[in-house]
Design goal:
seven-stranded mixed sheet; 8 helices; 13 strands; alpha+beta; six-stranded mixed sheet; single chain; 310 residues
Length: 310
Amino acid sequence: MRRGDVTRDDGTWTGLSLDIDGRPRPGLGVFSAGPRLLVSQQSRPVLLAVVDEQLDGVDFRRGDGYRSPVPPLRADEARALAGGPERWAHRFARHLVDSPDSPVHDGRWLLSCDSPLLRGRHADDSHAEHWGSMLVDGHPDGYIDWFLHSHAWEVLPLRPMPDSDDSRVKAYRKQAREGTLPPVLSWWVSGLDCHLILDGHARLAAAIAESVEPPLLQLHRTAPRDEWAVGVDQAVDSYASDLARFAELRATHGPTVPDGAAAAGPELVRALHDLNTARRPTWAWPLPGGEDQWRRIAREVTTGEEWPRR
């Protein structure tokens, strides 16, 4: 794995780029059978989903097979890594690559603190109200509403959210008050248009209970290597063309014409930044056995119960 810090044009850290090799299939992956999806972890059913015919949303049913790729976090470790998301990103990246239960596979990824989940809170809403409204309700089944919540503005836990008086939540509530709460690790899955919580269910519950904004790190695919390489070449060529055009104007009209760097430079920086950060669709593999196999898995998960009920 190759890592690289990603910054904005002002130098602010925004994420950690991961270039993965030698992992053709993830341990936690999405499989498709027509409008039916299966999120499976080491052959354990984690989430069954059916996209409705009107494309207004997704019925889902959780299994009980999910295991976090991140080992339990200790309070002393949280205090040692407090102060910014960069060190947490490197720690999570190591576990995401080493764990057999991780969603990463060959390609380029980004662990970013710049999540759309952190934007859009109404000024009159508390953090508890805002984050509580973005959590998808329902256990073991529920509905991801694309009509009311579009563009990935919902968070789907992969296990039931713990209560505020849960012992782990109580411990994290103290860290939330101290400002040392470790980030919640989420994974944006395009086929669900939703963020799945990979690690940090209790930490998110603690942040909601204390009505503070939870620190976040979001995992998503970025431009693959070939697309990235072509994009870099195009951005550099465009930059060189702009400078050449300004040079011609200066030759004709004199030195009062700017050299163009002030306009072309920021545009180049933005183009390169977008190549490193823009989201790409989540890969989904065809489910062996297709819809018949999906229905067999659904019967096992629901123990024969009729689902979905719509």
